[in-house]
Each structure stands twice: as structure tokens, then as C-alpha cells.
Amino acid sequence: KSSGRSLADLPAGAEGIALMRLVVQVQDPCAASALTKAFSMLPEEEKQLLSKELAYSGVAHERYQRADCIGGPAFLVYYSPAFLRHSCSRDTQEAGVAVRVLTEVYRAARVLWPLRCEAEWLEHEVAVHIDEVKDMFASQLSSAYADGKCWVLAKVSTHFAAVCEQPLEAVLKGHVTYAETPIRPADCEVLRLWASHTAPKGRGLANMRKLVRKTSCVHIGVRNMSDTMRT
User: Fold this and answer.
1) Alpha helix locations (H) across the chain?
2) Exposure winner among 41, 49, 211, 212, fewest CB in 10 A?
3) Mean of the pLDDT values across residues 130-151?
């Protein structure tokens, strides 16, 4: 009341849980407005993915009343607040990219840790560190791919994963390291953070898939993302 601003109605459903958890992270009315708009503009598939991942409680037999999502492990993305505040403070477009980047991190984490419903997995939490990208904007993230590098989510242990930049050629050969520790190809997932104008298309996409399957066990999940990253 003292600020003179009126509060909006609480969002409903699983999407509401995700939106509230994201808005809390930015800690600024203007940034929260940009983030809310960016979230509403997410493609439906990505919105559902992010909503589900943020609705897992990480506690067995406990769930949010607004969401009917049960399973684990739950992911705790370290430096997510810093990353969102950095991007959302710029403009709505940058906020939109930031939300999609965060969604991609959750997607990759779920590839490495498939959803399980056994009791031990309901209380299993995985810390996902994104400190390497927390101070970057979209153009900086996508430029790595133009320079022969890529962003990878590496599964370092059963409870820890980290986003790290890797030479693309090394990844294709199955050579990924984190903090000088070799990571098995099966424990890596390439993040699809390239800009739209550099996304693989047509035959090039098919050839890239074949090359990766031939030289590495990395499940990069490449697809045509002609409108994924707007810079």
C-alpha cells in the first residue's frame, strides 16, 4: 500500500506456481513485469515444461495445492535469481530469452535425471549450477556457437550438475570436462542456446544429428529452432 501500487490476482494452476517462484527471484517491480510478460509469451510446450519442473516440491508426499505434479528429482538452479535479475532489468525481449534459457536448462536436467516416482526419488534434489552464464545476455550466450563452442549441462555427480562452455569439436568426440574432471558423454546434454540465424536447418540439421550419433553418445536433442532465440 505504501508504494501506491495495486497487486494483481494470484495466478492459478501449475503455471501459477512457476510464475510466482520466478517473480520472487527478480525482486523488482519493473523486472517482475517484464518477466511476467515473457512467461506469458512462452511457447505452450516450453511453458508447460517450466511449469511442471517448478512445481515439484522435492519433499515426499508433499505437493503444491495448485499443481498436481508428483515425481523427482527436483532441480534447484543455483544463480537463477542473479541470471533473471540481470536479464530482466534490461528489457522484455531480454527477459523472454532469459526465461527460455532457464527452461532449456530444466529440459536438459530432466534428460540427465528422468522423472521417477519412487519414494527415494521424491526427496532427491539436484543442484544445477549456472554461474558461468549468470552475468550474460542472449547475444553473449549464442556467440559461443559461432566461435566453435557450445554450452553443455554436465552431470558431475548424482546430486550436482553444472552449465559449462565446451569446444564443439571436443563434445562431438565425447570429450567433456568440468573443473578438469572428465565427464562421460552419456552424462552431458548440449544446451540449445544458439541464435535463430545460426540454428541448423534442413540437411545440415540431419547431418549434424548423424555426426553426433556417430562420434559421441551425447543426446543433444537438436531440432530446428528458427524462432527460439531472438537477439
Assistant:
1) 13-26, 29-40, 44-53, 80-88, 92-112, 119-122, 138-146, 168-172, 202-215
2) 211
3) 91
